[in-house]
Structures are given as C-alpha cells and as structure tokens.
Amino acid sequence: MTAPHTTPEVDREEAGVPPRPAPDAAEIARLREDFPILSRTVRGGKPLVYLDSGATAQKPRAVLDAERDFYEHHNAAVHRGAHQLAEEATDLYESARERIGEFIGAPAQEIVFTRNGTEALNLVAYALSNANAPGALDGVDPLVADRLRIGPGDEVCITTLEHHANLVPWQEFCRRTGATLTWLEIDESGDLDPELSAITERTKLVAFTHVSNVLGTLVDVPRIVARAKEVGALTVLDGCQSVPHIPVDVVDLGVDFMAFTGHKVLGPSGIGVLWGRYELLEAMPPYVTGGSMIEVVRIEGSTYAAPPQRFEAGVPMTAQVIGLGAAVDYLSEIGMDRVAAHDRDLVAYTLEELAKRPWVRVLGPTDPQRRVGAVSFVVDGVHPHDVGQILDDSGIAVRTGHHCAWPLHRALRVPASTRASFHVYTTREEIDAFVAALDRVPEIFGVA
C-alpha cells in the first residue's frame, strides 16, 4: 500500500500554520441561499438532496448574474473589434483568465480555455501527436523538441484509476504515434502500485488523475512527478475532481500540464481549462486552426500566435469564461482551505454512517484524510441502478453506473457502483436523509 497522501490543509497544519475551520452550519445555510436550485422539490414534493456534484456542481447566483450581465450589457466578439463593446468584452474575458490563473497559482499566459476538461486533455494529446509532423517543431529548442516527440519505442503511462477522459485520448494517441500504452495497477483497496513499476526508462509521458472520480482517492502527485522526472517524462494531471474541492497550486504540484472543467467548480457548462508550462505551450503545434490563433496568414501558409491564443481558435466561450471567473471568485471568498475542511467533514461523516450498515461495502480508502469529494459503494446482491432508484424516490440525487471508469470497476471486480458526491453547499442533514433513504434497500430487497 502506498503511503497516505494528505490534503493541502493537513500539510498546512504540519507546517505549523493552523488550518482555518470549515464553514459552520449557519454559514452553510447562508451559502445555500445563493443556489436557487437547492430550494426546489422533486418526486412529488420531496426536498431535493443533491449528492451528485462529482458529475456537475450547482451554480450560485453570482455565476448566473455574471453570464447574464455579459449578454445584457457587453456582448461582443473578444479580440476582434475596436468598438467599445468589443473592448469591454475583451477586458472581462482576459480579467477572468487572470483570476482563474491565480486560483491555481498560474500566470494568465499559461491558461488555455477549452470546452471542458475532456477537450483540455485531448488538446495535449493531439498537439503532441502533431509534434511528429514534418516541420512541426522547427525552431524549437532541441531538448524541448525531444521531450515533445513521442513515437515507436516510447511509452505513455496512465493508471487504472482514470476517467475515460484521461484514458481514451492516450489510447488514440498511441494508435496514431506508435507509442505503447502502459498503466499503473491498483490493489483491492484502490491504491496504486507503490513501486510505480510501469514508469520505465522508455516512458515519455505520464497522465494521471489527482483525485479518482469514483473512489475519491487523493493520489500522491509529488511521488509520481518525482519518478517521472527521473526518467525525463512529461506529466499530465487530470484535476477535474481536485480543483473544485481543495487548494491546488500547479507550481507546488510540479506537473507539466493540468486540466479541469468549469462546471464542477460551481461554474458554467461549456468551459474547461488547460494549464501548461509556457515553454511547452510555446513549443507545441496547434490543435485547432482558424481565426484568432494566427500571427500572419498568407495564401501559401501561416504562422501562429503565442500561447494561450494559439490554442483558442475561433470566437471563444466568452460568457462561460466570465461565469467561471465569478465562480472562482466565489470560492476564493469562502477560502479553498475552508471548502476542503468542509468536504473532509462530509466525507468522514458519510463513511461513519455507512460503516454502521454492514450490508454496504464502501469502495476505496476508508480514511477520510485520503478522500476528496465522493464516496462510492455497493450493496452486494442489489444492482446500483436499483439503489439509485430507491434514493431518487426519496428525492436523493446520486450517480449510479461505472462513472466513465470501466477499467477501474473491472479492477475492483464490481460491474458498477453508487456514488454520493458533495460540494460546499452539502450539509450533514442531507447525509442523514441519504442514509435514511438507503435503509429502505435491505427492506425492499431482503438484504441480510
């Protein structure tokens, strides 16, 4: 088993800086008033208990208002016009880029906007495969170019924990380039191979998740990064389940690229973020070409703009970017260390309550310090879809299925699971309602 990797606020405590407390019940109640959807009822008048934030988070009024204000007062194509509306739209767009960068400890010039986290990961995979094209890396420092060229004889290493968004792109990458796909296995508790034996001298890239979207497992990023650096491999981090819940600083993490998606960070759908080290972004060929990402265009050929514009062809998702800027402002005002503390309390309470029910089998670590955002479980003898239906009848929204992580479920020897996932607006009372509804399962299905 690997050594436990704790959350950043635990590291803060070990460094002698006392962690700030989680929001108390009164503050959470006030925060919930910012989320209109949480006041609605479902299934015949039952209060909505939303425990599916791992799939998508709900949006506070600040985000809804930011998007609406843009469309009502500033709507124009950014970077394209000299009129006042275009200037205002561009200022709002680039201001949001700066604040989103600050949220993860990165300068604005290293922040690339995409449609979602999946596209951000695909951007890296396709741009790197384009690096093999003749002339694609002309003028690039030879040492950097060597890192970006991956082909036959090279290996790309992933993990069994991956969401399909950080698995299928690398399968396709290996098919296009001739590289070999390898992976870090997990044990029965969901821990990665402690020896990291799949990362070898032939490994040129390691792509891995920060937090498992199924198990909630917090992966030891520094350990994997250190091993990747030993062999000179690039590192690509899927931060979709970590950035919404814990403080994340890309400099401290030491990775080369990180992707996350806006809709899980209380932001709008249709906006994702790729962060990359500037010297790598500057060397990489584009993923999508067209307007806005060019430097000079002639009929016989074109040159491309510097990052991040090089990777933002066409009219961007301006309103969504502005909405995501409002979302990170909202979370920053609360304090991500406090968001993380609240998350840890919810995870611990959920694990404690499920442990009282011997007919429930929790997947992954039982130590709340090693989990972020989610708890998945199975009831042996009852299909997760049936469990989800019983919960839904009581107004409890959870996720059931393989959660876009089929290989992980196969490794755990379960066809599917039920997942409860949380955010800053989730309360202990909602956990109580969840487990009370879950208690109907053995009554209905005769589980001992």
From TrEMBL:
PROSITE patterns: AA_TRANSFER_CLASS_5
Transferase is among the record's keywords: yes
Region listing for Disordered, in residue ranges: 1-23
One biological process term in Gene Ontology: cysteine metabolic process
Cofactor: pyridoxal 5'-phosphate
A GO molecular-function annotation: lyase activity
Endpoints of the signal sequence: none
Protein name: Cysteine desulfurase
Organism of derivation: Mobilicoccus pelagius NBRC 104925
Source lineage: Bacteria, Bacillati, Actinomycetota, Actinomycetes, Micrococcales
